[in-house]
Fold this protein.
Amino acid sequence: MSEFHSDNNFSLTRKSHALQTRARLIQCIRDFFIHLDFLEVETPVRIPSPAPEEHIEAIRSEDWFLQTSPELAMKRMLAAGYPRIFQISKCFRAGERGHLHLPEYTMLEWYVAGFDYRELMNQCEGMIWSVARAMNLEAFVRQGRKIQADPPWERVTVAQAFSQHAPMSVEEALAQDKFDEMLVEHIEPKLGFNRPAFLYDYPAGLASLARLKEDNPSVGERFELYIGGLEIANGFSELTDANEQRRRFEEALKKRAAKNRARYDMPEKFLRSLDDLPPCAGIALGIDRLAMLCVGADKIDDVVAFAPDDL
Amino acid sequence: MYTASDLKKGLRLKIDGDPYVITEFNFVKPGKGQALYRTKLKNMINGNQFERTFRSVDNFEQADLREKTMQYLYKEGDKYCFMDNENYEQVYLTEEQVDEAVNFMTDNIEVEILLFEDKPIGISLPNFVELVVTEAEPWAKGDTAAGNTKPVKVQTGYTILVPTFVTEGEKIRIDTRTGEYLTRVKG
């Protein structure tokens, strides 16, 4: 450590505090789940095909792909009788590079049999709060603003958020194909600055692998967690209906084909396993971005030892 | 022709007949949503700025710009004078056009002058320059903690953060694209 003041690795040595905080964060997350009797699992990073989603581009690895998320493999484990599992793994997405994006990043993903999305939101809130306390973190920091992690956090539906912050309703945004634009320009910058905020009940067309609400099938039981305007996590009540899931995958594949995007295969083994999938909820959380909030970093590059440009 | 994935800070585009440079660039993408490219664009002639968000399907025209190597001579009023190394002609740029490059410009430095339809409109510096530290607090012994920095002034008057061991009179290499310290230069 005495060579720290040599300037050959100046930008790397400057990250020392961030990298120590990041390591502590991951350790505390692991402790939390192990104490709750979750099983830590490892599923393959190299897979034949990712879940067919319209806007997620996988990186090729020979004739297979690098995972964009461990979702399909983990749900197969749930279907096989593992009721509480978590995983911290590297995920890869082509073309994603910016202040908040690395093509290779670290994802925490966990699943709980018997939970729905509301119970999972509560657990997510409890997990992050207790991890923040275990780390002796006074507050999260984003753009110089402090965000306290103690519950209760804010909960706002997508429809409410559009009517409060966007210049058009969620229906109008969908009709004009401006949902994502409205989200990033008008809504995300307002979310999670007092307390972390859950945005929930997504339009059915954006439900992805979430089940639709029984009493209101126009929305899916999907939520996203925002802290200081940063999208941190995405969770669902998982869709367990294989026919409905196949129909959604087919739709995504059709849209991908129309835009000449890489061809993904229908994940048949996953679809077969859905018959045994118990009611459950699952969530994916970006570790790098949570680490950014712990140290008040502006860029995701600040919380990893090496970004692509450093190699 | 550029596509949205070519966009980055510093890229120059032609929009409605004028050259624009991207001054701020941000890739944004909701996890499951579309990739969006948020930009702030600056008109390279009149300096006007505006923000625009592009999508991955958008295309862009390249701005017809070329660069010529010239030498910085002197400042006269609010104009900076440069000499064309080939034909010794002198051209002038305004303070606005020189902008942050002034932080790294020493007398007689060779720079690239940007021409849009043969009219000088801007300047680009070598990626790296070496400047002498003219004002620095001395290095406190024992201050070797990782990543510690201090501000120093270089010969152009620019203030920059450097590791604490850098001392007055030393030459340092600076990345002109980021304005950040890279390393000390020996001798």
Q: What stands out?
A: Chain B has a mean pLDDT of 90. Chain B touches chain A at residues 5, 26-36, 38, 53, 144-147, 149, 163-165, 181-184 (CB under 8 Å). Chain B has one helix and 16 strands. The longest helix of chain B spans residues 95-98.
